[in-house]
Design a protein that fits this description.
The complex is a heterodimer of chains A (48) and B (277).
Chain A lengths: L2 H25 L1 H10 L3 H4 L3
Chain B lengths: L4 H16 L5 H4 L28 H9 L8 H14 L2 H6 L1 H10 L15 H16 L10 H5 L2 H14 L1 H6 L2 H19 L3 H5 L2 H7 L9 E3 L9 H5 L20 H5 L5 E3 L4
Antiparallel strand pairs in B: 1-2
């Protein structure tokens, strides 16, 4: 890939990532993640 | 004295392990850290049910939101994974993933070593698309909630980092253990045996996070470059590669974890980390 193409792709992905992170925070995803991560995840440890 | 990339990388791996798991004292009583840092995802696979964990697992977080009743798609976890991916690509696997470090240590144990054919390496893309992204959204209970299928049925990190310490410290969890735990222990044991035989077996075959980061290897800020005028095609770089890549022909392969073993091995200096910017 040419250097300008790589720079454009990097910029686009970084911008998209920033928008997605902001959208996720706005939708309240962080609360769901914190709720899941702060308690024992029974599925993760093989209990059910 | 020039310090090899292998030594620098090992130091970074240990620092990353400590930074992602700073609450080592929690292993004694099996309590989880419940603070705000768990709103963030670690770049590597690191179970948030490990008592020492200070951050969330990106794959666990992604499935938690994808399986939630209302949201069904985690922009936040995907956004963070895209950011890690574009900055580092699969250098996350090579430098930051705690389970990657564990696999490397396991592979040092004397045991018959083998290389994998190409096709099993495609399984991880199925893991990512079907098991991680689709199943928690498609298969739901009466309330509309999906399960984290990868964490529940496959992930050895949860069994090893979360399950074992919590089973040791919590009598009530031991009393709940049943067929699922037995299944997960068998899966984890098979993966451990796989890692004894094949270098980075889990990364190569099963890891959905590595599969995701692999898509960024060609455009991430961390790039490998081969100087074809210096390269003598001796083949030493591909022979030493733990991911079975040929760095002289395809330095930015989706499989490359940027471990730098090829750079250390090349006497001609033909392979190097390219200017990051």
């Amino acid at each position: 890939m040419k250097k300008t193409g790589v720079i454009a792709a990097r910029t686009a992905v970084l911008a998209a990532a920033a928008v997605m992170i902001a959208a996720g925070i706005f939708r309240g995803e962080v609360g769901i993640i914190l709720h899941k991560a702060a308690m024992i995840c029974f599925e993760c440890i093989g209990i059910g | 004295m020039k310090i090899s990339i292998a030594i620098k990388r090992k130091i970074i791996q240990v620092i990353a392990l400590i930074l992602m798991n700073p609450y080592i004292g929690n292993l004694k009583d099996g309590n989880l850290y419940k603070g705000s840092w768990k709103k963030f995802c670690s770049p590597g696979l690191n179970c948030y049910s490990c008592p020492a964990a200070g951050l969330s697992c990106p794959i666990g977080a992604l499935q938690a939101v994808n399986g939630s009743i209302e949201l069904k798609w985690s922009f936040y976890a995907i956004g963070l994974m895209c950011a890690f991916g574009i900055l580092l690509g699969r250098a996350v696997c090579g430098f930051l993933c705690p389970f990657g470090l564990l696999q490397e240590l396991l592979h040092k144990i004397p045991f018959p070593k083998k290389k994998l054919p190409f096709w099993p390496k495609l399984i991880k893309y199925g893991m990512l698309v079907v098991i991680v992204l689709m199943l928690p959204v498609i298969i739901t209970n009466a309330a509309g909630m999906g399960e984290p299928f990868f964490c529940k049925f496959i992930c050895p990190v949860g069994t090893i980092e979360g399950g074992i310490p919590l089973l040791i410290t919590h009598q009530e969890i031991r009393s709940m253990a049943g067929a699922l735990l037995a299944f997960k222990i068998v899966i984890a044991a098979l993966i451990v045996i796989g890692c004894l035989i094949v270098s980075r077996f889990f990364c190569k075959v099963l890891c959905p996070l590595g599969a995701f980061y692999g898509f960024f290897n060609r455009i991430s800020f961390v790039q490998l470059e081969t100087d074809h005028t210096a390269c003598t095609s001796c083949g030493k770089c591909s022979k030493v590669c733990p991911m079975d890549v040929n760095p002289s022909k395809n330095p930015n392969s989706m499989e490359c974890i940027r471990c730098g073993k090829c750079i250390d091995q090349c006497e001609k200096g033909a392979i190097y980390f390219k200017n990051m910017i």
